[in-house]
Amino acid sequence: MTANPAEFHSTPNVPPSSAAAPAETRRLVAYTKPILKMFPPTSEHAAKVTMLTVYALMVIAIIFIVLREVGLFS
């Protein structure tokens, strides 16, 4: 019996056309999930504006408390 290179005896369930080496020479890269944003961009923008507003009010409140302790506001 002569060996036929078109037959793959070690993988009987795989057809010969799919067992052949791929014609493309690209490198396979591990699959990573795409990063999905939790909220739409408008919602993220609104959250950023809200947090900056909260931080600004906190700074204003701290400055007001310091000035009151110094004695400028009686």
Strand content: under 5%
SS class: mainly alpha
Order of helices and strands: HH
Number of helical segments?
2
State the helical fraction: 40-55%
Structure, explained:
The chain is mainly alpha-helical. The protein has a domain at 48-73. It has two helices and no strands. The protein has helices at residues 16-19, 41-70. The longest helix has 30 residues, at 41-70. It is rod-shaped, with a radius of gyration of 34 Å. The protein starts with 15 loop residues before the first helix and ends with a helix. The model has no long low-confidence stretch (mean pLDDT 76). Residues 1-22 are annotated as: Disordered. The chain crosses the membrane at residues 46-67. Keywords: Membrane, Transmembrane, Transmembrane helix.
Blueprint of the fold:
Layout: H1 16-19, H2 41-70
Defining traits:
0% strand; 74 residues; mainly alpha
Summarize the structure.
The protein has 74 residues and is mostly helical. It has helices spanning 16-19, 41-70.
